[in-house]
Amino acid sequence: MIVCLCKGVSDQRILAAIRDGARTPAEVGRATGAGTDCGTCRETVADILRRALSPEGGPGDPGPDNVAAQP
Ligand code: FES
After folding, report:
1. Is residue 35 within 8 Å of residue 28, measured between CB atoms?
2. How many domains is the chain built from?
3. pTM of full prediction above 0.70
4. Residue 34 lies in a domain
5. What's the 16 CA to ligand 1 centre distance in angstroms?
6. 68 lies in some domain
7. What residue numbers bound the domain in which 14 lies?
């Protein structure tokens, strides 16, 4: 799914940036460009970060272990 229409950044690319060490929306922006134009996607980027880094995760949430396990 494309999260950032301005930069054409998908959720998978954001998760890859998180796997590579991005821990804030600004770091995701530097790594992918997401959120660095109009800013409409910034809350979605922040939500993906929260879910990916949450120790609990929820059903369907990537969680830190699953983020690390994805190719
Ligand atoms: Fe991401 Fe515009 S939709 S910066």
Report:
1. yes
2. 1
3. yes
4. yes
5. 18
6. no
7. 2-55
